[in-house]
Amino acid sequence: MSWWRGLGNVGQRKNAGASSSGVLTPKSRVKLGDLSVSPMGLGTWAWGNKVVWGYEDGMDAELQEAFNLCVTEGINWFDTADSYGTGKIVGQAERLLGKFVREYPGSDKIREDLQIATKFAPYPYRVGSQSIVKACDETLERVGADSLGVGQLHWAPPLGWQEEAYWTGLAQLKADGRIGEVGLSNYGPKGVARAHRFLAGLDTPLASNQVQFSLISRYPLDNGLLESAKSLGVTSIAYSPLGLGLLTGKYNAGNIPSGPRGIIFRRVLPTMGPLLSTMGEISSARGKTMSQVALNWCVCKGTVPIVGVKTLPQARENLGALGWSLSPEEVEGLDAAAKRIKKQSVQNIFQST
């Protein structure tokens, strides 16, 4: 199948589909390179991940329903990775995503507007630019497509091992039409600038950088990453915008998830009182959930958040994060409360400078 072929030409409009008040809706479109994507994407880390998210095969039917709802409401891009599926089957998220697209019951026109952004892990055994080309071909096989919206390097390899070779591979994939745009993940301001220069020498633009970002993970604000990326024309994609669930308002000292997330929750949750209180006040005044407030804050900061979905209620709630906007005063209040947190969420160990 080739439902993503040529989608770099889909609409050159910015914020098309915005409401009459100018706020972004699920049907709005923002720019990611030359692609037009919804102002929020759907993340697939939990699809196939048994260790962190407790994935089981029996979840697939509801995952399909959640996917269908998001697509029907206007979400048109989905983030995945060739490493997703830890503890189950590596690459399972890509397989499921391809299956869900094929089995989406809506129109072909909607299906053809979909974009997939995947990430290629810089495993030590991947040597040379052709290793990234091979990784992409393996992803295309799992997904069941002959091109993708965005190909990203999942993280910067330690000590720069093969880094320029990986970037060269991404540039080749774009030139060959296997991907529409080139992106990075977990890169800091220095790395983004370095990659941008290198790719420019290959006549290849850098379209995006995906980074952990939320009210409790403000690294991209504190070190100027968002601002520097914007100056280079690089779209900042915010992953874990709900802080692994800490910002949903659903957890407290007596209700902490098991597994790896529980370790982080026990460290961070006790310090989040002022922020959760401010979020609660805004959500009550607005008639929104705390999750919707947290996601809308990311949009207000100029990022394109990707949020995980496992159930229909989660899908409906996440969609409600768009179609309205926090006021400047509300954003300022959230910023002030977030700065009072003594222990921010642990930054991803793959984050580089």
From TrEMBL:
Gene Ontology molecular function terms on file: oxidoreductase activity
This protein's record includes keyword Oxidoreductase: yes
CC terms in the record's Gene Ontology section: cytoplasm
Residue ranges of domain NADP-dependent oxidoreductase in the record: 39-337
Region (Disordered): 1-23
Cross-referenced SUPFAM superfamilies: NAD(P)-linked oxidoreductase
Keywords (A to Z) from UniProt: Oxidoreductase
InterPro entries assigned: Aldo-Keto_reductase, NAD(P)_OxRdtase_dom_sf, NADP_OxRdtase_dom
Designated name of the protein: NADP-dependent oxidoreductase domain-containing protein
